[in-house]
Amino acid sequence: VGRTETNDVVVPHLTVSKHHAFFRFDPEAGRHTLTDTDSTNGTRLNGQTVASKQSRFLGDGDQVCFGEACFTFYSPGGFHDLLRSLSVLR
User: Fold this and answer.
1) Residue 64 neighbours by CB distance under 10 Å
2) What is the Cα–Cα distance from 61 to 25, expressed in whole angstroms?
3) Which of 31, 48, 66, 82 is most buried, with most CB under 10 Å away?
């Protein structure tokens, strides 16, 4: 995740670093992680700062902020469940 087009997830916001953070799937835990890459304006998970170069586990519905740009995280299965709960998928 970052501001430049070389990232898989581009967030063109001034508070987002060029290479801000990254997501990874941990197969042993069966969960996704978020790692800040020493960004200038920091990464927050549910309002708590993610220390530089430390991974934090993510859960469906978690709020993730890169600088001032905030998003809600969903795993593929969690997003499918969300859509079903909203009656979008039948």
Assistant:
1) 20
2) 16
3) 66
DSSP annotation of 8 reads S
Beta bridge partners of 24: 33
| pLDDT more than 90, % of the chain | 91
- CA 4 – CA 77 distance, rounded (Å): 28
- Per-residue pLDDT, 44: 98
H or E segment and range at residue 2: none
Query: 0.85 cut: is pTM over it?
Result: yes
pLDDT band at 84 (very low <50, low <70, confident <90, very high): confident
- The span from the CA of 21 to the CA of 42, in Å, is 9
Q: What share of the chain is helix, strand, coil (3-state, %, to 5)?
A: 10, 35, 55
Pair of tokens at residue 58: 């993510």
